[in-house]
Design brief:
Elements: H1 6-10, H2 26-35, E1 41-43, H3 47-56, E2 60-62, H4 75-83, E3 87-89, H5 103-123, E4 126-128, H6 139-148, H7 153-168
Parallel strand pairs: 1-2, 2-3, 3-4
Helix pairs in contact: 2-3, 3-4
Length: 189
Amino acid sequence: VHSEEYAKRRDDEAYFGNKGLDPQLLPLVVARAHEARLRISVHVNSAHDFHVAVASGVDEIAHLPGTKTVEQIARTDAELAARNGITVVTTAALIERLKKKDPELHAKLRSAQIDNLRLLRDAGVTLAIGSDEYDDTSVGEVQHLRSLGVFQDLEILRMWTRTCAPAVFPERKLGRLDPGYEASFLALD
């Protein structure tokens, strides 16, 4: 959570719940987790958080940076994320909370999201669709991503199925209609 301000936030009670992890500690956590054959998914808010996560070798990044502030992901970080096979779960619809509250900021965040999503897609980063809302599904995320005009419907469908299922359950064969993959069907009259 805004790791670029970790030292400032660490002992300040005004940032209670928004202090995050010491960015120097993350590479050690990742190394220990990987030694134990565990995957690491990190929550990011800023482009700096994204950089720290990528440089630390995480497996997954939850959130597109910039849900409250305009954030631009560095091309080098996007390229490294792609090379390292890091999955980014977009959760970009979070900015919709600001649409009525602060339309000007919403427009700036939306523009930055478009730039960041194009950058990640063009760099070859694996993108998955998810929701940051514990009481909702990812349908709102799909609608938001469609409204941005960055992806074609088929790309969104692949992000929502072929990418998302294995991101959640990496040891299972899910998200495809191919031989050897799990299949669940619901038949209705």
